[in-house]
Design brief:
Chains A, B: It comes from Amycolatopsis silviterrae. The structure is a homodimer of 162-residue chains. Chain A is mainly alpha-helical and 162 residues long. The first copy, chain A, is built from 6 helices and 3 strands, in the order ααβααββαα. In chain A, 33% of the residues are buried. The first copy, chain A, binds a DNA duplex (23 and 23 nucleotides) through residues 38, 40, 57-59, 67-75, 77, 90, 93-97, 158-159.
Chain lengths: 162, 162
DNA sequence: TATTGTTATACTCTATAACTATA
DNA sequence: TATAGTTATAGAGTATAACAATA
């Protein structure tokens, strides 16, 4: 409209955003129905479940989840209250807090995952061929790496001395 | 973990969600900085700007934006208060409300768009080849069509008589 | 002085249910 | 009876700034 550019590119962008919005909405409902968690809480637990020793510092946990620190503190507090994680000061760095997923947390993730995979398969994988998926995986992997390499726009942007 | 499945597929899904999350966060900030709007408000205005006669009913406006009706009413109210849209009863159907974008609304979109395109180009298009983009566009277009064809999980799920 | 994390607060978005009015 | 939309209200997520403690 103003900066014209290739319209196809914009279409691609819009299709991407709308698709993921729909998918996000669907999995959000699945996670809540199957495990009484928000999608973000599920993501945090899933990250912890895959982490070495099943624990991460708050900062490490925040990375990639696009979060303000206070938001993560809030979510960690909710998860702790629900008995799904524990928090303790790191022995390596007294400033850091280590978040550890509990067995109840692991169970919760395990309870959600099968249905979760079903939703993703029905909505995302279903209309795609095996080859499409491979290509999409490669493309999004590159995009993610590229975005991660960009100056983080959330967590790290704490004090931007103007 | 539970329903095993192809791990590559899950990776693709995670890469997709994380990338879009980062992109969403970036454009959200751009839209707010350049035009004092939330991303969703921007999307609504952009939809109206592209619509025939620059107007849509509430229901048509909601489609694809994954919204509850009350949420859309709320957003439309904010946009109207800001002078960016007007609302009037449709002459065709007395029940329907026609939302029309104003000149100020068009100006606002025009003010946001160039910078918006810049962000999308830097974050999404930059690491991709022309061919990647074509492929991605085709894939996401198919995915979107597929998801739209699914029973809508937001707007239409109004009264699900159990 | 920089970094990790928490607290308090306020704001936005979203969702549910009850309601009005028109088809 | 079904559909379009609004209202009220409550809840969840997010962000900012001020703060304490450790490196």
């Amino acid at each position: 409209m103003a900066d014209a550019l290739e319209p196809e590119q914009l279409d691609t962008y819009f299709a991407l955003m709308e698709s993921v919005s729909l998918l996000h909405h669907a999995v959000e409902q699945q996670v809540r129905a199957a495990g009484e968690l928000s999608y973000i809480q599920f993501q945090l637990l899933a990250r912890l479940a895959d982490a070495p020793d099943r624990q991460l510092t708050m900062t490490a946990l925040a990375d990639g989840v696009v979060y303000s620190r206070s938001g993560l503190t809030h979510q960690a507090g909710l998860l702790e209250k629900a008995g799904l994680v524990t928090r303790a000061t790191s022995p390596d760095d007294q400033r850091a807090t280590l978040v550890t997923i509990t067995q109840a947390g692991l169970d919760r993730v395990a309870a959600i995952l099968p249905g979760h995979v079903d939703v993703v398969r029905d909505l995302l994988f279903d209309p795609l061929s095996k080859e499409d998926l491979d290509v999409l995986g490669g493309i999004m992997g590159r995009v993610r790496d590229h975005m991660r390499a960009q100056p983080p726009r959330s967590v790290s942007t704490r004090k931007r001395r103007t």
